[in-house]
Amino acid sequence: MDAAKRQVLVSGDLESQEFEGLAAWLSTWPSIELHAEEATAWVANFDIILLCAARPGRFSAADVEAFRQRNPLAQLIQIFGPWCIGEARTGPVPEGIQRMAWYEWSYRLPEVIEGRSPVPATSSPQEQALASLSEIAADGNSATVGILAGAAADFDYLRSGCHALGHSAKWVSTEESTKANDLDVLIGIVPGTDGAEFAELGRWFLAIPAATKILCLGAPTWEDWQKAQSCGVTAILGQPFRLADLATLLKPQSDCGILPLVNRP
Questions:
Q1: Position 221 confidence tier, pLDDT thresholds 50, 70, 90
Q2: In 3-state terms, what secondary structure has residue 260?
Q3: Confidence of residue 262 (pLDDT cuts 50, 70, 90)
Q4: Which residues neighbour 29 within 8 Å (Cβ) at sequence distance 6 or greater?
């Protein structure tokens, strides 16, 4: 075991489609040493433990406590699939564990891997939210964001987040393809991917290849991601979203760019 690298254990439902790209993505990080679940018998004191849950109750409080006893300093993170969206409301969810959705790991895990997350293992969800806000820093680079929304309330939902981060935002329509070439980022907010709204959004996204494209949905599924990816979407924001997540996704491409959710052929 390389002591100079951060030790990362990934455990759980890796065979589920929403997690299929995670291990491969983690293996590209030179700063970590990745271990599969079967390594737990002989390796302890991990720095990061990722618990992939495709269904509610996949990891009980006893399971989490067992991980913590062997790895008292580890950062425990549950990455949950679409079936677990409401788990935090209906409970019980083990205490002292961070949670992120399956579509969020591509833009949330980098700060964890790089040791930039200020959140201790025993923090509450409220403390995690406050910590993420404290990490947002204006770097002077402003993006021009085009927001396609069907209602003023939806537009304002995203506009307020963009303005809070120092970016400009304008309400656009699918009839303005020629006027959208000056936009750095396009964000579309639709109720789902089965209706006419998404079909229209998809055609509009494909007509503007240069801009970064983000889809905002209420409770994304794996099928939603596949449809979104087919029209150039690079990331999905859930509703509600963290301001820190929006800040990461709106970083200029000259900085870190936007990581793909899954590297698929």
A1: very high
A2: coil
A3: very low
A4: 113
Instruction: Tell me the per-residue pLDDT of 84-140, one tens digit each, with 9 for 90 and over.
Output: 887 766 666 777 788 899 999 999 999 889 877 656 655 665 565 555 555 555 555
Model-level pTM?
0.81
